[in-house]
Amino acid sequence: MTSTKLEPCIPLDMEKEKLTDLVEKAKDYALMHGICMRRKDQFDRDALHFAPFVLFPTSFPRNEFDKSVKLQQVLNELMHKVAHDDEFLTTSLRNTIKVDHFTKRLFDIYERVKKEGGPTQAISAGLFRSDYFYCLLSEKVKQVEFNTIASSFGCLTSSLVSQHKYVVQEAGYPQHLKNIPENNALAGLAGALISAWRLYNQPKSVILFLVEDVTYNVCDQKFHEFEIRRQCPEVFVIRRTLTEIGNRGKLTADKRLIIDGQEVAVIYMRCGYHPDQYPTELEWDARYMMEISLAIKSPSIHYHLAGTKKVQQELAKEGILEKFLGDKAHTDSVRDIFTGLYSLDNDTTGDKNLENAMNNPEKYVLKPQREGGGNNVYGEDIKPFLENIKNSDERCAYILMDRISPPIIKNYMVRPGMEPMLADCISELGIFGYVIGTKDEILENKQVGHMLRTKLSHVNEGGVAAGLGALDSVYLVDTDRCC
Ligand code: ADP
Ligand code: MG
User: Fold this and answer.
1) Are 143 and 284 in the same domain?
2) 3-state helix, strand, coil in the chain (%, to 5)
3) What phi and psi, each to the nearest 5 degrees, are found at residue 432?
4) Is cis: bond before 406, omega within 30 of 0?
């Protein structure tokens, strides 16, 4: 068991008056710096709410944070290689696509592009986020998942660092500032899109943000646009939905993607990761058209597939990291962040894993091939769920993962229209990075920033956009000093 005790960075037993004052200040800071979202209760194009946040930054072990930051470039490279290994992707997803219709549709696009002679655009741009819990049992960070599509909150959490710096000073703890690390995720991610645009090398071309019909997390996206404008006065950003691309997008003879008279150099997908986002064949046609086009995709279809939970599980198998990374130090450091990942395929190993999960459901999380939160199965729900699918191939659509137990740390959760709530919380760290390259050459590979999301400790999933989680920042503590 751990000897590390992680405490709130500021004593929370403050007088009500002081708390109210701090909360008001924090809310105003958030509202006035765009740490906001669209209202979900009533749609109003012209109004925003502040995004849920916790009042103070959350303690996180410094050495584990530094380690995760350093590891990001290795993970970027790993995922780039995985995405370009046709045999590995095909073998890994072979059983999954027999039963998971959505992954199959993505895979069909991948195959169709291959049949057409391969991608028209050799360059891919991956804007990634690797997510972790600090695991109490091992006293190490353990990877929850690796996101290759629509990784959000690069902007809002960059801004939240400034808000938290302001709040801890207002609370009377200026000495804490040095332990809140800078976060330049927004600048880095916007820079990646500009780099991709420059590589496309067509002065009048635009960057297209692929967006949902209604975007609740709109500020996070819009600040990317503003940042692109700030860093690069020459480029224009347009926002389009899959439906709009399906209806109005066209390919030229040399496969340039044109929409509304503009040539698209780069497609940044903040949508396209969930079956609901493809209500008809038109949207699937649009995804294929984008994929076969000359535009640089973030992500290209092979990056998208490489980010599936099934691939994550296959990567944890013996000998696989060695194959991709070679370097022993790199292999060891990546293996160290993996927790147990298990296949549920219809074979003896899968049977054994399934039985273990039925016997000890509280030790596992059951995951389908979905993104965006709210899809996993936990604890006692696992048993009846597996009972239902254990005799069918449907089980191949899922993977099993060891359930990670992070430390519980108290904080005030602040949500629009609600009283601040003192709560037991757990936090998930995300490290942002990007990679741009072709199958044979990595042109750019960077770590660019981080984020912290915090949720109530008893809630299984705490999506911020879904209203169950809150934005947070990291407060670094030297764990050997806080034992
Ligand atoms: P998604 O693609 O939907 O974000 P995740 O794998 O990130 O899928 O799971 C969603 C949430 O479920 C995570 O943010 C985390 O709160 C919780 N979760 C996922 N895996 C684990 C795990 N192994 N242990 C504990 N909680 C987990
Ligand atoms: Mg996630």
Assistant:
1) yes
2) 40, 25, 35
3) -90, 145
4) no
Residue from 144, 153, 468, 471 whose mutation best tests the ligand 1 pocket (most atoms within 8 A of CB): 144
152 classed as catalytic: yes
Residue 75 near residue 146 (C-beta atoms within 8 A): yes
Predicted structure pTM score: 0.96
- 367 belongs to the catalytic site: yes
Q: Indicate which ligand has the atom closest to the C-alpha of 456.
A: 1
End-to-end CA distance of the chain: 12
pLDDT digits over 87-122, tens only? 999 999 999 999 999 999 999 999 999 999 999 999
Ligand with minimal distance to 149 CA: 1
Q: What are the tens digits of pLDDT across the range 358-389?
A: 999 999 999 999 988 889 999 999 999 999 99
Candidates 347, 405, 398, 356; CA nearest to 377 is: 398
Q: Looking at the structure, tell me whether residues 258 and 375 fall in a common domain.
A: no
Spatial contact of 412 and 55, defined as CB atoms under 8 Å apart: yes
The number of distinct structural domains making up the chain is 2
User: Position of tokens 């450091």?
Assistant: 333
- Ligand 2 centre from 153 Cα, in Å? 12
CA angle 382, 372, 159 (to 5 degrees): 130
Which of 362, 382, 403 is the last residue before a domain boundary? 403
Residues 379 and 309 in one domain: no
Q: Which is the catalytic residue, given 77, 145, 314, 428?
A: 145
As a whole number of angstroms, the distance between CA 265 and CA 235 comes to 10
CA 465 / ligand 2 centre spacing (Å): 12
> Which atom of ligand 1 lies at the shortest distance from residue 463's CA?
14
185 within domain boundaries: yes
Residue 167 in any domain: the answer is: yes
Say if residues 436 and 423 touch (Cβ distance below 8 Å). Answer: no
CB contact at 8 A, 401 and 367: yes
- Smallest CA-to-CA distance from 108 within 287, 237, 275 is with 287
309 is catalytic: yes
pLDDT digits (tens, 9 = 90+) for 293-324: 999 999 999 999 999 999 999 999 999 999 99
* 465, 377: one domain: no
Domain enclosing residue 368, as ranges: 340-403
Ligand 1 neighbourhood includes 376 CB (under 6 angstroms): yes
CA–CA separation, 156 vs 51, rounded Å? 9
Quick one: CA dihedral 307, 452, 192, 261, positive or negative? positive
CA of 452 to the centre of ligand 1 (A): 14
Specify whether the CB–CB gap between 73 and 446 falls below 8 A. Answer: yes
Q: Which atom of ligand 1 is nearest to the CA of 142?
A: 23
